[in-house]
Specification:
Oligomer: single chain
Strand order of the largest sheet: 3-5-4-6-8-7
Largest sheet: 6 strands, mixed
Radius of gyration: 30 Å
Number of strands: 11
Structural class: alpha+beta
Number of helices: 11
Helix content: 25-40%
Distance between the termini: 104 Å
Length: 404
């Protein structure tokens, strides 16, 4: 009796094992093999998504408790959970063979130079490139804020010449099959008016500040007079703004030349900078127009990286300043919340969102940040920012900017 019981138990175990092996081969193993043997795809080919509906049973009360116990058992861990993952395609990433290993460092593009438009401060003219549209080998022109101020003071160029050159450069960058789309709103008459007033101040020897006549771009997430606050959408900002955001007011009071409104990821809620709607279009990376700029302050980063403006203002909630600046090779700063006033910007990310500058060098970031700290509160009246960059030393103390 004992021997027959042991044989029956052994037969039962073998049968169950064979059955379980068949289940594995049929429902899990075969699928895994198909995924592993899948050929490498073509990056240039269109992506086709196989969307499927999968209805999971609704479990409540006692039934849910028994189902949880069953799933937590050996049978559940080996058969029920893999089956659910497989049928809902949650098992896909576990079995899929990645053809390209993930990277943890920036990839440097070593191809031919991308078409670009640069601005020469010596004469205010634009480097338009040859007939094919390819720019000359000098590349992008990263003139700093101090370079603009020095050029105006020395008479090498004027804010009027620079304004015309920048407007032409922006128009030129949006031509062709791959427009850069850095700026989405520009009021040329207003730009020329501000440039003429700045030029008059320099002629009379009374510039307002180091920023007088310096071209600046403002992200479409900040209120600017005469412009629409659309935040990258087609349904917001139907009426033009009648007042400036605080950060814009300070730049305007310093004499900055507000060129226009820069592009962004719709509602600032993405890290790519993609915005395909009819009023915006997607900003392209100046170094490779087939690549994204990153987002959401895509237009601001691309405008600085292309040498169109030395300073652009953006916002950052979850990397919206830092991501595009990294991908476009420029510099930014996300300050502590409240250091730079958020007044005049829609509350899209609550207290995690901050306004900040994007520039081509650290010294310009220090200047732009210091300008925004002026008159912020009494505690900041004795802020000192000292930056040594090559032969330039910038000190801002007691609301006074001194260039040594």
């Amino acid at each position: 009796g004992i021997v027959s019981l042991g044989v029956e138990r052994m037969i039962f175990i073998v049968v169950v094992g064979v059955f379980l092996h068949w289940l594995w081969r049929k429902f899990i193993g075969s699928r895994r093999g198909q995924l592993l043997d899948k050929p490498e795809g073509n990056a240039a080919a269109p992506v086709n998504y196989e969307l499927q509906d999968y209805a999971l049973p609704r479990l409540t009360g006692t039934l849910l408790a028994w189902a949880a116990r069953l799933i937590d058992s050996v049978v559940g861990k080996w058969f029920i959970i893999p089956s659910i993952l497989r049928r809902s395609n949650m098992f896909l990433l576990r079995s899929f063979r990645m053809q390209n290993a993930p990277t943890f460092h920036p990839l440097v593009f070593k191809g031919p130079a991308t078409s670009c438009t640069t601005i020469r401060l010596s004469d205010g003219e634009t480097n338009k490139g040859d007939e094919s549209g390819r720019a000359e080998p000098i590349g992008f022109c990263f003139a700093s804020i101090v370079d603009y101020s020095d050029a105006y003071r020395s008479g090498k160029t004027t804010p009027v010449a620079v304004a015309e050159s920048v407007l032409h450069a922006i128009a030129n960058s949006d031509e062709g099959s791959k427009p850069l789309r850095t700026f989405v709103q520009i009021n040329e008459d207003e730009v020329k008016r501000m440039a003429a007033e700045s030029a008059k101040r320099f002629q009379e020897g009374r510039p307002l500040s180091l920023f007088d006549g310096v071209p600046v771009g403002i992200k479409e997430q900040l209120a600017v007079q005469l412009y629409h606050l659309r935040c990258g959408t087609v349904f917001m900002g139907n009426e033009a703004c009648t007042d400036d955001a605080t950060v814009v007011k300070k730049l305007r009071a310093a004499g900055a030349l507000i060129i226009g409104i820069t592009n962004l990821h719709e509602l600032g809620s993405g890290t790519l900078g993609s915005n395909p709607n009819c009023l915006h279009g997607t900003s392209r990376n100046p170094y490779n127009t087939d690549h994204y700029t990153g987002g959401s302050s895509s237009g601001s980063a691309a405008a600085v990286a292309a040498g169109l403006v030395p300073l652009a203002i953006g916002t950052d909630g979850g990397g919206s300043l830092r991501i595009p600046s990294t991908l476009c090779g420029v510099v930014t700063l996300k300050a502590t919340y409240g250091r730079i006033s958020n007044a005049g910007s829609p509350v899209l990310s609550g207290t995690v969102s901050s306004i900040g500058p994007i520039c081509s060098c650290v010294s310009d970031i220090a200047l732009a940040y210091g300008e925004q700290l002026k008159d912020t509160c009494n505690v900041l009246c004795h802020v000192a920012i000292c930056v040594c960059s090559q032969m330039l030393q910038i000190c801002w103390l007691d609301q006074t900017l001194i260039i040594h």
